[in-house]
Amino acid sequence: MKIMIRRTSAGLSAYVPKKDLEEPIVDVETEDLWGGTVTLRNGWRLVLPKLSRDTPLPITVQARKIPDED
């Protein structure tokens, strides 16, 4: 799914246009954000592509949602 990641005054945020959903990013797997997973406040976990550490924000990227664990 395509998501837009941007920096807000409260931290990083992810916007999912197809769902008209914007949620804060509450956890990141890798220090530089790219190439790992992020967790949104609503519980969604997304795998981000591997990009350069100095990639400017805001940016739209292709991310993969990790299915919920039961």
Automatic annotation (TrEMBL):
GO terms for biological process: nitrogen fixation. Gene3D superfamilies: NifT/FixU-like (2.40.50.240). SUPFAM superfamilies: NifT/FixU-like. It comes from the Bacteria. It holds the Pfam family NifT. NCBIfam families: nifT_nitrog. This is Putative nitrogen fixation protein NifT.
